[in-house]
């Protein structure tokens, strides 16, 4: 198997992804279709409830975290209906994450790829909170998530240290992050590279502006 994986997250810079060789993994529901998808990672009660209520359809195989695992225990009818899509449950919680709530979908997907799948080169798209004061997400288009300044500050303060923990735990893994301006707000170790272009795809946004609601069409219309 190839040592390369592509993790397509839910932030605006997910638009940097272009079809490439290697394993393709998504978080929740990406803004665009990904061909030859290996699996989708999900970690939230809210995502399970959205699927259960029919508000969203997530195709393909799933890798689920601790809270979806608990949801299945509580909602046996849900488990019976969707069990064929469940590739596995991934319940690892690294010591640098205080709880499963802080260990978000991107964290778990990255840890799963590096730890369980043993990929040694991981390309990461759509992880804007590492670079800017922005936690908006494709998931906001079908889930109610507060994105005011207070909640954004709370989340970035919890999420960013966990990224450092992951990058340092897997020091022999090469991580490549894609972002418009490429100015990380955390100190990145030597095994993390930042790229502001990808195979001719450059600025997804003309400039990085203060956080605004996620616009799926903006990502689909990304410049190439």
- Average pLDDT figure: 86
Strand tally is: 8
Helical proportion?
Answer: 25-40%
Poorly predicted ranges (pLDDT <50, ≥5 residues)? none
N- and C-termini, Cα separation: 30 Å
Strand order in the largest sheet? 5-4-3-2-1-6-7-8
Structure write-up:
The chain is α/β, with parallel strands linked by helices. The protein has a domain at 4-32 and 98-220. 28% of the residues lie in helices and 17% in strands. The chain has helices at 45-52, 66-74, 76-82, 105-116, 149-169, 216-220, and strands at residues 4-8, 23-27, 37-42, 62-64, 86-89, 121-125, 174-178, 192-195. The protein has an eight-stranded parallel sheet with strand order 5-4-3-2-1-6-7-8. β3, α1 (45-52) and β4 form a beta-alpha-beta unit. α2 (66-74) crosses α3. The protein is globular, with a radius of gyration of 16 Å.
Describe how the helices and strands are arranged:
Layout: E1 4-8, E2 23-27, E3 37-42, H1 45-52, E4 62-64, H2 66-74, H3 76-82, E5 86-89, H4 105-116, E6 121-125, H5 149-169, E7 174-178, E8 192-195, H6 216-220
Parallel strand pairs: 1-2, 1-6, 2-3, 3-4, 4-5, 6-7, 7-8
Descriptive key words:
alpha/beta, eight-stranded parallel sheet, 6 helices, 17% strand, 224 residues, globular
Briefly characterize the structure:
This protein has six helices and eight strands. It has helices at 45-52, 66-74, 76-82, 105-116, 149-169, 216-220; strands at residues 4-8, 23-27, 37-42, 62-64, 86-89, 121-125, 174-178, 192-195. An eight-stranded parallel sheet has the order 5-4-3-2-1-6-7-8.
């Amino acid at each position: 198997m190839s040592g390369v994986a592509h993790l397509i997250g839910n932030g605006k810079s997910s638009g940097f992804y272009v079809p490439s060789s290697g394993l393709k993994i998504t978080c929740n529901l990406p803004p665009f279709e990904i061909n030859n998808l290996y699996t989708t990672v999900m970690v939230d009660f809210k995502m399970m409830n959205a699927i259960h209520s029919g508000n969203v359809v997530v195709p393909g195989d799933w890798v689920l975290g601790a809270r979806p695992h608990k949801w299945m225990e509580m909602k046996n009818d849900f488990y019976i209906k969707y069990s064929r899509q469940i590739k596995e449950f991934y319940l690892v919680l690294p010591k640098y994450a205080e709880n499963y709530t802080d260990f978000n979908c991107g964290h778990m997907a990255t840890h799963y790829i590096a730890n369980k799948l043993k990929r040694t080169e991981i390309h990461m798209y759509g992880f804007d909170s590492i670079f800017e004061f922005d936690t908006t997400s494709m998931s906001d288009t079908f889930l109610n998530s507060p994105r005011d300044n207070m909640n954004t500050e709370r989340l970035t303060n919890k999420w960013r240290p966990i990224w450092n923990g992951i990058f340092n735990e897997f020091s022999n893994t090469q991580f490549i992050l894609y972002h418009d301006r490429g100015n990380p707000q955390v100190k990145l170790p030597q095994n993390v590279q930042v790229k502001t272009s990808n195979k001719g795809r450059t600025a997804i946004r003309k400039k990085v502006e203060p956080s605004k609601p996620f616009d799926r069409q903006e990502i689909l219309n990304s410049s190439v």
